[in-house]
Amino acid sequence: MLSPQVAFQIVAYDIRTFGDPVLTSVAEQVENIDGKIVRLSQAMLQAMYQAPGLGLAAPQIGVQKQIFVYDVDGVPVTLLNPRIVESRGEWVYDEGCLSIPGLYVEMLRPKEVLLEAVDLGGNTIQIEADELLARLFQHELDHLNGVLMFERMTPDQREEALSEYKRIADGGTSEGETRHIGLK
Length: 184
Ligand code: NI
Fold this sequence. Notes:
It is a single chain. This protein has a single domain (4-181), classed as Peptide Deformylase. The protein has four helices and eight strands. The protein has helices at 4-8, 35-50, 131-144, 155-169; strands at residues 55-57, 67-70, 77-88, 91-96, 103-109, 112-118, 124-130, 179-181. Strands 1-2-3-6-7 form a five-stranded antiparallel β-sheet, with helices on both faces. A three-stranded mixed β-sheet has the order 4-5-8. The structure holds nickel (II) ion.
């Protein structure tokens, strides 16, 4: 007999990293919210918690659909077909990405955003976000448009980030070592 856990077991996905073409493709809109989409969102949350990270977009596990998940305060949230309808202010934050492990880059982006998206119940919702959550929304939305952090960096940062990332990816650093690149 199967243990009860098996019924809820979900396929484990690897997180795709920089260089994988799925990360630079535009994701498709979700048309039908069916069991597949629900299972996908569960798998995404599992991958996100395992990493661990605060947010994860579907292309990061190789699925070109407009879905992202996040958890910034203990509550897992899944959003579909998101778009930013308003943004204002400026805020500097040290941004990291599960698909570019080991690199944290200080970036300036809008401080507040108003996000419109569809939840798993099919309802269109709006979320006002500030600082960390606003940054997370902008970062995950970029993933759905095939945009990685490198494209948001200044040219000087990008040059340094690419060479640091190469060093990290080539195993030139110890496991778990991180590199911080300030705003310049
Ligand atoms: Ni990311």
